[in-house]
Amino acid sequence: MAKMIPQNVAQFTTEGERQTYRFLEAVAKPDANFLCWYLPDVQGQEPDFILYSRKCGMIILEVRLEPESDPGGQSPVLYARHRWKDRRA
User: Fold this and answer.
1) Could you give the number of structural domains in the chain?
2) Strand pairing category for 76-83 and 57-65
3) Which member of 4, 14, 43, 75 has the greatest number of CB atoms within 10 A?
4) Which residues contact 25 (CB under 8 A, 6 or more apart)?
5) Which of 4, 39, 34, 40 has the alpha carbon at shortest distance from 22?
6) Which run of H or E residues covers position 20?
7) Residue 35 structural domain
8) SS3 for 24?
9) Following DSSP, what letter does each residue of 26-61 receive, concatenated?
């Protein structure tokens, strides 16, 4: 699992963020290579998640629930802005 920051979240802003936190915690492996921040403050901006790997780079995630595409409104949709840096060059 990824190293999650913070490790214990008492209450999530949305159900989609809770689901995404649990998903990233479980699947970002090996954990030594991934850091995941929930609700970081980045120069006054507050994305939902930042997932970082020294090998792969950084992904900034915004989680939204899309009720029109999911009648139950339970499946999170991730919007990702990414900035990849190729360290091979």
Assistant:
1) 1
2) antiparallel
3) 4
4) 1, 2, 4, 36
5) 4
6) helix 15-27
7) 3-83
8) helix
9) HHS-SGGG-EEEES--BTTB--SEEEEETTTEEEEE
Q: Is the peptide bond before 47 cis (omega within 30 degrees of 0)?
A: no
Q: Which residues pair with 81 in a beta bridge?
A: 60
The answer as to whether 24 is a domain residue is: yes
pTM score: 0.70
Phi, psi of 79 (to 5 degrees): -110, 120
Q: For residue range 15-68, what is the model confidence (pLDDT) as tens digits?
A: 888 988 988 888 877 677 888 999 998 888 888 999 888 888 888 888 876 555
Is 89 a domain residue?
A: no
Q: What is the DSSP letter of 77?
A: E
Q: What are the tokens at 54?
A: 């020294």
Distance of CA 35 to the CA centre of its chain: 10
Instruction: Give yes or no for a contact between 50 and 39, defined as CB atoms under 8 angstroms apart.
Output: no
